[in-house]
Amino acid sequence: MTPEDLVNDVKRALSSDTRIDQSMVRVSGEQPGVIVLDGQVDTYNEKVLAEDITGRVRGVNDVINNIGVVPPIAKSDEEIADDVRGNLKRDAWVEWSRISIEVIDGVVFLRGTVASMVEKQEAENDARWIAGVVDVVNHLVVKPEITIADAEIERDVRAALIKNTRLDLTEMNVDVTDGVVTLTGEVPNFTQKRIAEFVAFSVPGVVDVVNELHVSGAVRPAA
Which parts of the sequence belong to the BON domain (predicted)? Predict the structure, then answer.
């Protein structure tokens, strides 16, 4: 597949998804397997979705997301903070009382403690859907209610990865230190890199995931 073919496939994938206005997103790719997204969208969620959709296209090994967020209607930082707080309060997966919210020029900062990586991600999801948000910086610290030994976490992460039939663990390594899971090695595509990270942070006891997996054949263009 040529870079031009891959760019066209990504454009078709974006245009077929009703959650995003593909006409606002520019797609390019000069390095084999590496797609660059530019342009601007109305919401931060669209920016994240564009990257997710692109990463699922066969042949994509890496995604560089340079999309800007320009909300069509101006909202004050106080209004955005109130909306984020409301979403957190309504979310049964999140203990909102342990989370503090600060909004600066549309950028949402989440701070505090949560019980799991899943709760941390759900809190971020609650913020990213809010109109007026241009970015989310997630500083939430994971403090599991029950401490689990690193060796046990590593065993459980490996077991979870093995159970996922979409993953090839041949060149993948797992290391756990103080609850932080580090994934290293090589995977055949961008989707597997994302799946491995999702599987790892879903394991009880994990406080963070450092995804250093390399996609075979992916070479990022020089900055």
Answer: 2-71, 76-144, 149-217
Please enumerate, as own/partner, the contacts of 13-19 that have beta carbons within 8 Å and a separation of 24 or more: 13/53, 13/54, 13/56, 13/57, 14/50, 14/53, 14/54, 17/49, 17/53, 19/46, 19/49
Tell me how far apart the alpha carbons of residues 109 and 124 are, in angstroms, rounded to a whole number. 9
**What confidence tens digit (pLDDT) does each residue in 129-168 have?**
899 999 999 999 999 988 899 999 999 999 999 998 888 8
CA torsion sign for 107, 43, 59, 164 is positive
Which domains occur in the chain, in start order? 3-69 (3.30.300.130), 77-142 (3.30.1340.30), 150-215 (3.30.1340.30)
**Among all chains, which residue has been given the structure tokens 């209610």?**
145
pTM for this predicted structure: 0.81
In whole numbers, what is the pLDDT of the chain averaged over residues? 92
